[in-house]
Design brief:
- The protein contains two helices and no strands.
- The longest helix has about 35 residues.
- The model has no long low-confidence stretch (mean pLDDT about 90).
Amino acid sequence: MAWVDCMRLRRVATIVRGVGWTVSTVIFCCAAVLTFVTENEHGLMIFAALSAVAMVVLGLTHGIAWAFDRRGDRIVTR
C-alpha cells in the first residue's frame, strides 16, 4: 500500500510542476506581448518584472512538488 501512496504523491507533484510551467509560460508570454505593444522606455522594466514573477512562480511550484516527492519517498522507506 505504501507504493500506491508514493505513486499518488508523485502524480500530484507532476501536476503541481505542470501547473507551475503553464502559469509561468503565460506570465512570460504576457510580458513579451506587453513589451512589444507598449514600445516605450518602460517596456524593458515591465519585461524584467514579469519575467522575475514567472521565475518565482516556477521556483515555488517546483519547491512544493519536491516536498511531495520527498514525502512519497519517506512513505516507501518506512
